[in-house]
Automatic annotation (TrEMBL):
Domain AB hydrolase-1 residues, every copy: 45-332
Keywords in alphabetical order: FAD, Flavoprotein, Hydrolase, Oxidoreductase
Protein name: Alpha/beta hydrolase fold
Lineage, opening ranks: Bacteria, Bacillati, Actinomycetota, Actinomycetes, Geodermatophilales
Record InterPro entries: AB_hydrolase_1, AB_hydrolase_fold, Cholesterol_Oxidase
Family from the record: Belongs to the GMC oxidoreductase family.
GO molecular function, a single term: hydrolase activity
A Pfam short name: Abhydrolase_1
Swiss-Prot/TrEMBL cofactor(s): FAD
Keyword hit for Metal-binding: no
Length: 352
């Protein structure tokens, strides 16, 4: 028997939200979003970090109960970061190295300063996870004691078709466009973007939402790639139309090199970052929890298995891997039944 989701108003009606300007360590403007619920927090701060070409609101879809609600009800002090990949900020070329060196350490320092806490936990997704993990293993955030990482961290492993797209098609498009945007499905930005949307419409027939179809073309090899349609309710499937925008080809170029290498590789020498992210033991005491949706068509579950194995070689028994049946990439966060199937696991690991 399926238990009905708790009957509550749309999540934002319950929240007090403050958007705070923040400067990255290189001066790039960011924001952190502080969310408070109906009761003061009884636990410490937790930082939520989104992926590429989305924004902090990724964690607050139009569901009766979101991950943010679950965290607030469990007593956590919730902060969400808009790092330089956020569509709420002016689009810029960016790399994972820049986010790791400049964005995440600045956000951690700000949240600790604002709350007076000396430790912090994080729930990080996709390229927010990859860049946050780089910062952690580089020793840049010693105050972070728990990291729940979804989808990918240090070892990107993708389907074969994705390897071909990112290695062959992406450089071709990148010669004429600085970025690609799934949002073009509803709002094309010129003849080249219209041509790309036409290609996607001709090759992706999985639904009538052209932004959803563009997301699958941009980020993976599935139909769809980032979620199962069965795991999304109609409101969330429509909501994604406004939640995806520009992703620069600087990111895809770094990901291509990393996929070929079998692990994340730096593309520039930046302060505090090592020459290799996997040559030495992680320089962090944070316990890592690796989440891998079994049906992920963007980054295969093998991605998180390899990262967990890397950590386990250096500190056996400390970190955890969870492979989640019936879920893929983003439905782990905002699936219609995530409140029942995945959010309790995240709460359990944060409370350990």
């Amino acid at each position: 028997m399926t238990t009905a989701a708790p009957a509550r108003p749309t999540t934002r009606a319950d929240h007090v939200t403050e958007v705070v300007p923040l400067a990255a360590l290189d001066g790039r403007p960011l924001t952190v979003v502080h969310v408070q619920g109906r009761h003061p927090p009884t636990r410490g701060p937790v930082l939520l970090v989104h992926g590429a070409g989305v924004r902090a609101e990724l964690f607050r879809p139009p569901l009766p109960r979101t991950l943010v609600d679950a965290l607030l009800d469990d007593g956590w002090d919730v902060w969400m970061l808009n790092w330089r990949a956020s569509i709420d900020l002016d689009p810029v070329p960016w790399t994972l190295d820049q986010a790791a060196a400049y964005d995440h350490p600045a956000a951690v320092r700000h949240v600790l300063g604002a709350t007076g806490a000396d430790r912090l936990k994080a729930v990080v997704h996709c390229q927010g996870s990859a860049s946050f993990t780089i910062a952690a293993v580089s020793g840049l955030m010693p105050e972070v004691d728990t990291v729940v990482s979804n989808a990918v961290s240090l070892h990107p492993v993708v389907p074969r078709l994705s390897t071909l797209k990112i290695g062959r098609l992406s450089p071709l498009i990148g010669r004429v466009l600085p970025y690609v945007s799934p949002g073009w499905g509803d709002r094309p930005a010129g003849p080249l973007s219209r041509a790309l949307v036409g290609l996607v419409r001709a090759t992706h027939w999985e639904c009538d939402n052209t932004v959803c179809r563009m997301v699958s073309f941009t980020y993976g090899s599935g139909w769809p790639a980032l979620w199962s349609h069965a795991n999304l309710d109609d409101a969330t499937h429509d909501w994604v139309r406004g939640e995806f925008a520009e992703v620069p080809f600087t990111f895809f170029a770094q990901m291509d090199r990393s996929i070929r290498a079998g692990h994340l590789v730096p593309v520039s020498a930046l302060p505090g970052l090592p020459e290799s992210y996997v040559a030495e033991a992680p320089r962090t005491d944070a316990r890592f929890v690796f989440l891998a949706g079994e049906d992920n068509h963007c980054f295969l579950p093998e991605s998180q298995r390899r990262s967990h194995a890397f950590f386990a070689r250096h500190r056996p028994g400390r970190d955890t891997l969870h492979r989640i049946r019936g879920y893929g990439h983003l439905d782990v966060v905002f699936g219609r039944d995530a409140w029942r199937d995945t959010h309790p696991l995240i709460l359990e690991e944060l409370a350990r």
